[in-house]
Amino acid sequence: MDYINPSSNIPVPPKPKKRWTLLKILATLALTILVFGGGVAVGRGDVHLRGLNLGKASSSATNLDYSSVDQLYSLLKSDFDGQLDGGKLIDGLKTGLVDAANDPYTAYFNQADAKTFNQELTGSFIGIGAELGTDADNHIVIVSPLSGYPAEKAGLKPKDIIAAIDGQPTTGLSVDKVVQKIRGTAGTSVKLTIVRGADKPFELSITREQITIASVKSSVDGAVGYLKISQFTNDTTKLAKSATDDFKAKGVKAIILDLRSDPGGYLKTAVEISSLWLDQGKTVVSERRGGQILSTDYALGGNVFKGLPTVVLVNSGSASASEITAGALRDNGVATIVGEKSFGKGSVQQVENLPGGGELKVTIARWFTPAGKNIDKQGITPDVLVTISDADVAAGKDPQKDKATAILLSKIGQ
Asked: Taking the model in full, what pTM does it have?
């Protein structure tokens, strides 16, 4: 692309004297975010559901000189050979500002992107059925493929790196931007370039489809109740409580809580699910920034599973709200954790509503278990490590669930 060398001696046009320059719009945007910083938060379970108190442990602010931005806009407007779209320029400015924070979970959404983002926890959307995150090197990775959907059927696994989408590298893209590129129209396909460990990169073409998630499944095997939570959505607590009625009617004496490949969901739901086991007032999770505790969430009561021996199953696809729940139950001494180390998604995002329908999703803190252990990048390490091999999967075996059942039967004397 042709451009003007920044070292060339080209006079800068005077700033336009319009009432609303780009500088003023940006300043107004920044002020609006500050004024309405306590807005309602929505979205993923690692997303804050309360307004952030900006007076608490706020990071040191950087005084930005916006004059260079206004100067750049003046040059672009006077010299660009083409038609400029003011709305797209503003969206681009907001996107660039937020992306410069260099955090994979902090993102700006315009109105259309915000609508897509907020559809995720309705339990229905069009995509390949996989939760995405980042690894320690900021690669975009599969957190967990959702059971029964295209990503899992195509063979994607937790920790797989998505190196490119339809031939375009993902380097430098946020998680949300990658999600937007992967989603599309039902029946169309997306080509992913995958890096798995030290293996040679390979490509997968995956057909998008409508993803409808049943967040809770349950069954009873003898005296052991099995509760599988695939995602912490807005109907999960209601469905889980229905399962508790069934367990009670069938005389269940012990419980397996399966959070494997559960990418998370609402924090509120994680607190409600944990409360099925914990006494009211017991700590579920704390939110910290640096060394300061910003807030703590406590069990709500109604602990219908109190006293029932419980095993929680986790794997590398267990993230966010599922890690909060697993950590809460273990640290409060009501459950044993079996399986593999969880993903380690413990950063807290708050969503701010912006004028015009856009949203800012911004990382504000980290989640810690009741025992003070950092979930982010650390994950939850099982009390009993049990792996599942490809051969186990092919043979339809589940050694993790088998181990959980054996532990529980020994505790209830069967």
From this structure: 0.68
